[in-house]
């Protein structure tokens, strides 16, 4: 019996997490495959393969790494480990090499690197936070040097055990009237990435959304204001001798948002809101799941600065009376 790990560590789940199995027998036989989560030793699934000589098995449907993945709620600038998990399969006494998976939804090149859909030049307002997903190498030191245009600076470091880390950037950590922040990222004293933030005054009218991007990073963007709000209601009514009565009520609350005029790269990244499987809105320092109901988003075809608008369903209620 041979078991071969086909997929590389940190392969995107939608492409499959594959293992090859060769019974090394000439005659087909039935085999039982156990899929094991390494941290707990739990058997998360068992598959019975009948009449098999050699086959490939995909364990991605049994991986739940994205279940609890949500925007970070840290209010200070900090490094944290990104969600990762390790799995193996076994057939009888034969075990495979472990495979490491994480939240990334794209193939990652050589580590270390920033995993992002938004460009590295971004807007942020005073009081807002951002987060950056970083693919590192296990056991190696990652350092961030964050400098404001006022001369203030922060330095922090992490030695990631998982191979994936999240840098949370909090503008409230800087006291002065800053107008820009520059982030330099180092691995073992060698720079591998940088980000530039233009810091704007906080707008009470702004709506800040976060979404699971095509890269797998959770990106954030603040829409300056909502230009329209709408409440949709549908009621089922019956007529009785006492008058008309509602038997069921269904209500939804929508807002329409418009972005700033942005470079094409930013507009393309924010447009991923239309297809993202998870979108959140920030309300009272909490993140609440919402639904983007705009099926398509249009923007300038010629690569020039553009803007976009979309509709978001904030909540819906259904009541039987």
What does this structure look like?
This protein is an all-beta fold. The chain has one helix spanning 264-270; strands at residues 2-5, 18-22, 29-37, 42-52, 54-58, 78-81, 84-91, 94-95, 99-102, 113-115, 121-125, 129-135, 141-148, 153-159, 164-170, 180-187, 190-200, 207-212, 218-223, 225-240, 243-258, 279-283, 286-292, 309-320. The strands form 5 sheets. Strands 19-18-22-23-24-21-20 form a 7-stranded antiparallel beta sheet, with no helix packed on it. Strands 3, 4, 7, 8 and 9 form a 5-stranded antiparallel beta sheet that branches. A 5-stranded mixed beta sheet has the order 11-17-16-13-14, with no helix packed on it. Strand 16 and strand 17 (190-200) form a beta hairpin. The chain starts with a strand and ends with a strand.
């Amino acid at each position: 019996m041979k078991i071969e790990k086909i997929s590389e560590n940190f392969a995107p789940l939608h492409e499959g997490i594959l293992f090859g199995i060769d019974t090394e027998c000439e005659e087909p036989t039935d085999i039982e495959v156990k899929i094991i989560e390494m941290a707990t030793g739990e058997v998360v699934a068992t598959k019975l393969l009948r009449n098999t000589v050699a086959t490939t098995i995909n364990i991605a449907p049994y991986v739940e790494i994205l279940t609890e993945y949500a925007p970070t709620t840290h209010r200070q600038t900090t490094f944290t480990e990104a969600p990762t998990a390790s799995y193996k399969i076994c057939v009888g006494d034969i075990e495979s090499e472990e495979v490491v998976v994480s939240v990334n939804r794209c193939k990652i090149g050589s580590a270390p690197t920033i995993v992002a859909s938004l460009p590295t030049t971004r807007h942020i307002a005073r009081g807002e936070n951002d987060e950056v997903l970083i693919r590192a190498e296990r056991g190696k030191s990652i350092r961030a040097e964050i400098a404001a245009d006022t001369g203030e600076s922060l330095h922090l470091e992490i030695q990631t055990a998982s191979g994936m880390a999240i840098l949370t950037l909090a503008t409230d950590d800087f006291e002065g009237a800053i107008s820009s922040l520059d982030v330099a990222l180092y691995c073992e004293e060698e720079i591998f990435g940088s980000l530039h933030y233009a810091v704007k005054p906080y707008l009470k009218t702004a709506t800040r959304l976060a979404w699971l991007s095509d890269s797998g990073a959770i990106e954030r963007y603040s829409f300056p204001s909502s230009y329209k709000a709408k409440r949709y209601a549908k009621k089922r009514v019956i007529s009785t001798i006492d008058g008309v009565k509602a038997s069921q009520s269904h209500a939804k609350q929508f807002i329409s948002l418009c972005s700033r005029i942005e470079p094409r790269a930013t507009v393309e990244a924010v447009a991923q809101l239309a297809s993202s499987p998870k979108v959140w809105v920030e309300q009272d320092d909490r993140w609440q799941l919402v639904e983007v109901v705009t099926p398509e988003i249009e923007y300038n075809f010629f690569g020039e600065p553009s803007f976009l608008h979309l509709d978001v369903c904030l909540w819906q209620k259904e009541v039987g009376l």
